[in-house]
Amino acid sequence: MTHQSLLSLCTSCLLVSSAVIPCISPNSATAQGVVRNWTGGGATDDWFDAANWSPGAVPDPADLLLVSSSDIAGLDSNIVNISDGGRIEISSLSATATLSRLDVGLQGEGTLDMSGGTLTTGFVLIGTTGNSFGTANITGNTSTWNITDGSDRDLYVGEDGEGRLNITGGADIDISDDVLIGNRASGIGVVNVSGSGSTLDLLDAGVISELIVGGFGRGTLNVTNSAAVTSRLGAIANSSGSNGKATVDSAGTWSITEEMYVGSGGTGTLEILGGGSVDNSTGYIARDSTGVGRVLVEGANSLWDVDSTLYVADEGYAELEVRNGGRVVSSIGIVGNDSTGNGSVIVEGDDSMWDIASTLRIGEEGTGSLTISDGAAVENTFADIGNLSGSTGVVTVEGAGSTWTNSSVLNIADSGDGTLNIAGGATVSNTAGNIGFASGSDGTVNVSGGSSHWSNESLVRVGVSGSGTLNILGGAKVSSTHAGIGVIGSGNVSIEGAGSRWIATSSGGSTVGEDGNATMQITSGGAFETPGNLVVAKNDASTSSLTVTGNGSRLDLGFSLSLGNVGGTSTGSATIGTGAHVTVGTSTVIQNANSSLTVDGGSLTTTSLINNNGGTFVFNSGTITIDGGGFHPGNSFLLNGNSTATLNLQGNGVSDFSQLTVGNTGDAVLRLAEGHSLTLDEGTIGVSGEFILDGGHLAAETFNNLAGGEFTFLSGRVTVNGDVLGSSAPFVIPTGGTVDGSGFVEADVVGQPGSTITVTSGNYTLGNPFSFLGFVHEGTLSVGNRIAKLKSAGFAQLGALTTLSGGTITADNGISLGGGDVIMGKGDVNAKIAAGIGSFIYAPGGDLTLGDANAFDGFVSAGNMTVDADSIILLDRNQAQLGTLTTVIGGGKVVAANGVVLDFASAITGDGNIDTPNDPLRPTIINGTVEGTSSNLSIGFNGYVKGIGMLNNVYFTGTHAPGLSPAELLVGNLTYANSATLEIEIGGLTAGNSFDKLTSNGILDLDGTLDVTFLNNFMPSLGDSFEIITAANVIDEFAFENLPDIGPLLWNVNYGATSVLLEVLSPFTADFDQDGDVDGNDFLVWQRNPGVGSLIDWQAQYGSVLPLTANANAVPEPQELFILTCIALFSCMQRVIR
């Protein structure tokens, strides 16, 4: 029987009872009741047979009737009422009473007390009329009351009056049909079922019937202390104006096989407390538009189990509260079902839960709200907040540990208006999330507070076809795979506050404006993160914007940022404000003319920035970092700042411009870092600009720093491609830095140690001709086979290594080399050379020409020089000054057209040749040491060589003029070729001081010409000798001896094994004593040693005297006459003997 038919039946039954009962109730006017005991002594079991009572009389409704010891049978037709203070007491286990109808409190007060036995009745009214008060107390586990009315009559507790039914101590009431508690408007009914085993069962052949708490009046049902109530249907406050309350407490149970109505048409309350439980199929709180329903499920193990749908405000106003560990279970949950429905659900406290097997809708057509707080939980599959058009739904999940778990999609504003609030550390989870799903819908999600989290296994869409808003505040978090904002409708996202963030985990795409309009604002430390890409204004219809601003605000993209659609008409804009940071894993692209990117105080880090199809790029201030890709904001770019704008180009990428200006009117910094290449047709550093080269590669046709800007070269490479790099400040090349190319670098060039300058093509002009420090380089200069023109008002200073491979270096005012500086290779250095101590010049393969043939200091070296199998050609207007060490290897040559000077403490070593003119006016002056490798691998001189240096393993093919004036020269192994000349100067008789002498501890191998000259009008005398050579071994003789004229005297060159002696001899062969005449003393010398000469010569030349006189005029002295006589006699005797 439905609750509507039940109400009609109840009304008709009450009309019958009011008409019949006065007719069958004798003594109804008795004023004072009598105590009567059932004896069963009558002929029948008729309740109104006086013989069955003691004292015997027909019972009055006001009597106290006691049934305690014997059965009562056959009373089905009896209609009994208890009124005016009357009471029936059934107290025996064996007592059995059967009544057709029972009124407890028909008029006044009536009481039924049952503590044992069995009572069987038909229709029962407790508190029948308006002034009545009926009470039935059924107690004890031996008490059973069966209400079995064959005409579907029921139990009414509080019909028009006040009725109370107490079932305690294990008592059992079984009812075949329906129970109404507080039936009529004036009726007040209370049913208390308490205690383990106490039951109220509404049974009809095994089918459970309806239990209504508050039909039209006021009804109360209390099920406590493990008691049990069962019914087919349950209704609390069934009709408009009714008031009903049911409390199931302390492990009590109310089991309903079908629907449960709380505030069906009136005001109804259901409280499930202390481990109590209610179960039913479908549940309604506020069924009709007049209904007001409230359900409280509170405490651990308290449970409302709804097998089917739970409606919170089907049409009226409803509240569902689940607190402190209470639990509600349903298949479906709908809050605010009808357009007139207004429902509220609160799930609060640890372990409190609403467990929904399927769908949850908050605001189906009406108004619904759900609050989950303080650690409570709600679980369901699919959920809608604001489902149908005109509906309003609000869900608030707040507090640490509070959770709403959706195993499927969550729609906030499906077709209506929906709001989701997540706060205080709460968590909401679902698969996909949609905000503003259908056209006309309006959805908002607010996620606020640290640790608050909206977790989406799939994508989140804001403004699918309707209007959607997502606010992430105060450190809260949203996670999803993708983000879709303004899919077709309008979407707005705000991520605000330190720690607030939206993390989209998929590497796929997220959008701000697909076909709809959208905004995303990331402020005050908020963040959006995804490993994928983000598109702003994806399709033509979209006008959408992205703003990231505030200290700590971040946008982190693993892939690209695209503004607008390629060549389309959408409008996509992005602004990066003060303190914000945007990181893009690949490229940032302005796709069309309607779209724009503005950096105004924040930072952008991206692989590439590309402005396609005429979009707008504005860089007012902040930092842009291009890492690994290219910077292409347009063919021409002006980097200015209303504050400081810094552009960092780094990583392995390439950027190019036809024209780039840095800091023309505003403060701007461009930093070109490791791996990045910047190519410019024309580059300019303005008055307030700074260009920092920090490891990258700058390639420019023209680069101008003439307005007072700053060019800071920390490391990297500069290439000038055939035009001009101009700077009013010195162009400093740092350690590790490289400058290459061709063209002009018109500035003071300062190359620090470890820097490199490379000429890659044509001519490269470097330096400032108006500065004495116009070119100062301490690094490497690589010329190759090209031309480097070095400009300086003073010497151009070369660095650690200068190399040529057939190229040319020029410097109008000369070149200097410092200690440790090297020139190496082949080619021409057409400039004055001033090479310091420790410098090194090396020609390893090919000829190297150095110096200035027109300068008196064309080549001056105090350093080292090595030539390997080729030639070093030294140019100087007079002698080239050789340095500390000159080494010739493998037959290499040092060539000097005007000779060389080897100073003291300097040396020439190796095996090669010093090729200089054999001209005393262009001599080679050796005051240092010349040390050939060996006597077979020697140093060759073909020029005019003089000086006082030590010579060893030296081969002369030119002229050797020892000393600078007469000197004794200590030497080693010397070889004079046939073409060679040894010049000896004689100005006296003392070796070294007055005449030249070679003193060798080795071998002197002689050939060629000995050329002897006198100094200072010196003329030797007869008998003078000059030992011009001493050696360990003298080999061979001079082929030619060019000796000066000594008048009548004769020269004798005496070649010994270890010496060469120049002797002045008499012209007379018989001047044996070399005293300038031939006289008797010569004879005495001959007499002692006939081997000194010929006696015949003495005879022929006797009398000859220097100056020469004819011997015919000689008159012998007496002594001489005696000697002559003796000689004549001696001759005669010799003949006689023969």
TrEMBL record:
Leader sequence residues: 1-31
Stated name of the protein: Putative lipoprotein
Keywords of this entry: Lipoprotein, Signal
InterPro entries: EF_Hand_1_Ca_BS, Pectin_lyase_fold/virulence, T5SS_PEPC_rpt
Signal among keywords: yes
